[in-house]
Amino acid sequence: MKESNMSEVYINRIAKFLPNAPISNDEMEGYLGKINYRESKARRIVLRNNGIKTRYYALTPAGEPTHTNAALTSEAINALFDDDFRSTDVELLSCGTSSPDYLMPSHAVMVHGLLGNRNLEVNSAAGNCCAGMNALKFGYLSVKSGNTRNAVCAGSERMSSWMLADHFSQEVENLKQLEEQPIIGFNKDFLRWMLSDGAGAFLLEDSPRGTLSLKIEWMEGYSYAHELDVCMYAGADKTADGALKSFSDFSSEEWLTQSIFAVKQDTKLLDRHILEKGVESMKRAMEKHHVTPENIDYLLPHVSSHYFVDGLYQGFADAGIEISREKWYTNLRDVGNVGAGSVYLMLEELFHSGRLQKGEQIMLCVPESARFTYAYAYLTVC
């Protein structure tokens, strides 16, 4: 299809859903529980570095679930609708998450089931933090090509239920029987203090609507899996040679005694590559589309921790793409790291802040540490 036949694509509405009340750092362990009845030694170190002050959990204070991931997502999507654009007007539903409620059916069809609106095309984007951007890109390409006139795209996570202390109890008991220290490895404990719940949703259309729209100029994605090892994973474990062994190749007893389904991260690999490849891919995207730092009014970087902010800024500066710090916009401190939903939640907050002026340009920047993937989007305020 020729470029002249392509439609323009606009983000016309943005909505979010954050479950329950915000949870402070001191309250976290009360919700998630203490592994082996002991306070985590990693908690204070991790929280000091990540700079998060509050986050949201789809849990009661007793650790009971209040929402599924699909429910969080449908709540955010329903907030997009009114008498001028109803749920039955949606032509495509595209949802991304790294924490689906089930191995199957897919996340997006479960969201569709809760919406109960009409027969429509559905897409599920899997992976980690880039899953939300991949869901957005599917919707963007559908509207741009003219396949659909609109798309609802969403990014969400419900990680709190994965981090409950009870899920590690069998591993602790196994360590005791082996007469080893009943302490969960840092690669598992680390992420218990990093991740949060929530959902965000965009309405994409082929023409602007209302007093404020964001035109999607372009989107780009880059994977470094061809040269880098797995860094963040769940439902698997690493073997002695660094290969990944699937849960389906472990016994059901090992699923429990080794916490195979816990989310794990190799923090050494993370420190070694996440910023380096982020800078490299950002520069490639900017050069491809002839964007300079002067062409960016707001940079919305999904960072898992404030620990990385200074390094990322310096990396951009060293690569000749320095973006002044007053242009950076993030809500990590108050909302937490919501993985695939974080970029949606950042843009939702900025969109409704009253700060945006027509003609300004926004860069969305999302890294994914799973096997080092990066996604970018460039928007113009209309």
TrEMBL record:
Beta-ketoacyl-[acyl-carrier-protein] synthase III C-terminal domain location: 286-365
Keywords for the protein's UniProt record, in alphabetical order: Acyltransferase, Transferase
Coiled-coil regions listed: none
Keyword Nuclease: no
Family matches, as Pfam families: ACP_syn_III_C (PF08541)
Presence of the UniProt keyword ATP-binding in the record: no
Name of the molecule in the record: Beta-ketoacyl-[acyl-carrier-protein] synthase III C-terminal domain-containing protein
Annotated gene: darB
